[in-house]
TrEMBL record:
Domain RNA polymerase sigma factor 70 region 4 type: 110-161
Keywords recorded for this protein, A-Z: Sigma factor, Transcription, Transcription regulation
Domain annotation RNA polymerase sigma-70 region: ranges: 16-77
GO MF term set: DNA binding; sigma factor activity
Biological source species: Sphingobium cloacae
This protein's name: RNA polymerase subunit sigma-24
Highest taxon of the lineage: Bacteria
GO biological process, any: DNA-templated transcription initiation
Family of the protein in this entry: Belongs to the sigma-70 factor family. ECF subfamily.
Length: 169
């Protein structure tokens, strides 16, 4: 991991609450803000050392703002495209093609396999977050661990699953 990435990761962990509040004001909900903050963690891991970042806090908050704005725009586009309205008889068949279904099943199998490879604690936390929809704070209080540890477990699980998907391609 680069020096910038390490410093930004530490800063993200220290400023996480402030970042979630900032992002929440932009995207409008705590769950969406938590998701954007997780995406921010992945983005920070990719930051290179060249050029060096002189004001890491400003960089981190700008990156969070940009991700939040992108998320809000995507949600508005989605809402505009899929708002309820009269359906036309001319609409093409929306059922997925056989090839798409096969690829999706294969990807699902890879993700399921990757999840089975996780430690029981990591798997439990991922399930609570992604399936049950609990916040990091709720998970932390249920399991008696810190919210920061929950975030680390989720990041570890997501990185592992993404790694398994990437190695298959």
């Amino acid at each position: 991991m680069t020096t910038n990435a390490v410093a930004l990761t530490r800063l993200l962990l220290a400023e996480r609450a402030s970042l979630v509040r900032l992002v929440q004001r932009i995207v409008g909900s705590v769950p969406a803000a938590e998701d954007v903050t997780q995406s921010l963690w992945f983005r920070v891991q990719q930051v290179e050392d060249d050029p060096p970042i002189s004001n890491k806090r400003a960089y981190l908050f700008r990156l969070a703002t940009n991700l939040a704005v992108d998320r809000a725009k995507a949600e508005r586009r989605h809402d505009a495209l899929f708002e309820d309205g009269p359906l036309s008889e001319d609409v093409a068949d929306e059922s997925p093609l056989a090839e798409r279904m096969l690829l999706d099943r294969e990807a699902l199998g890879l993700v399921q396999s990757a999840v089975r490879e996780l430690s029981p604690r990591c798997r439990t936390i991922l399930h609570m977050r992604r399936v049950e929809g609990l916040t990091a704070s709720e998970i932390a209080s249920r399991l008696g661990i810190s919210r920061q540890m929950v975030t680390r477990y989720i990041a570890q699980a997501m990185a592992h699953c993404l790694d398994r998907l990437d190695t298959d391609e």
